[in-house]
Amino acid sequence: MADHYEVLGVARDAADADIKKAYRRLARELHPDVNPSPEAAERFKDITHAYDVLSDPEQRRRYDAGPQDGTFGGGAGGFGDIFDAFFGGGGGGFGARGTGPRSRAERGQDALLRVEVDLEEVVFGTHKDIEVDTAVLCETCGGSCSAPGTHPVTCDICGGTGHVQRTVRSLLGNVVTSAPCGTCRGYGTVIPNPCPTCQGQGRVRARRTLPVDIPAGVDSGLRLQMPGQGEVGPAGGPSGDLYLEVKVRHHDVYSRDGDDLLATLEVQMTDAILGTTTTIDGLDGPVELEIRPGVQSADVLTIKDRGVTRLRGGGRGDLRVGVQVVTPTKLSHKERGLVEQLAKSRKAPAPQLARFQQGLFGKLRDRFFTF
For the whole model, what pTM was predicted? Predict the structure, then answer.
């Protein structure tokens, strides 16, 4: 009897949803109303019986457990374990204890791709269509690995068990052991007519477009998991997962500190003295700033809720704008005269050392070297 998992083309650890999905896909192809051929009718009976067994938790448990007979038993610590250790598995007293054929369908490998996004896209998230070069289900054979109109046949060497038995002489007498069949490689079936498109693999390499929603708040190095979007497994097995590793491109004006956006604002000396208002281009639109009279270099203007949308949790970070007062280096004769008049009228003291302020150097360092 063919293995139920192999009949449906799923792995032995397939989830209930995967089993149901596989059955529906095959039923649409093999139902007598769609495919009246005798071969399709026979396969339809096989997949229906396999689904009846595997969709019922209790029946599936008994099916997975397999036969429990054997002279010495197969429980933990029994003689079967001793024979397994010395004679390569499958030994069970004087009778063979086979594990059944293995399924051709296996889970596909996970894949890793890197996707670059702009800082503007990070603020609110973005949608991208990504080209993925990966293994997909062979449309010619639908993952059966056989040419259209054909199907795998039972191996005439192992009789469909996937194992062959041999007798080993030991101190305990003749012991029958079991090993994977070399003809069918343990599958229990052979494919006399492989699919010409996939060469009997049940999958082919192809490029496909995958729509991806990049959430707001992502940062470089973050990996997004997309279950079931990796490579399709051999013989139409379940797909692996796709991981997208995010890289945020460098921005010429803005940088990032967690969920906050950082920027530097150059303020002319006269504006710093008198104060002014200005409008800057934020990543999501214009931002109006009020510069108070007497603003100093390294002062930080904070605009609430104009930063990056938080990845986990609601709300946004802040926009922090550091001030850099620009001292003119070239003055006209008239401008210099005006500055000299200002200096005389203020009678400012000569430059001198200021009292130590805790955190001042840290503030300057963070201000001028973080951006």
Answer: 0.61
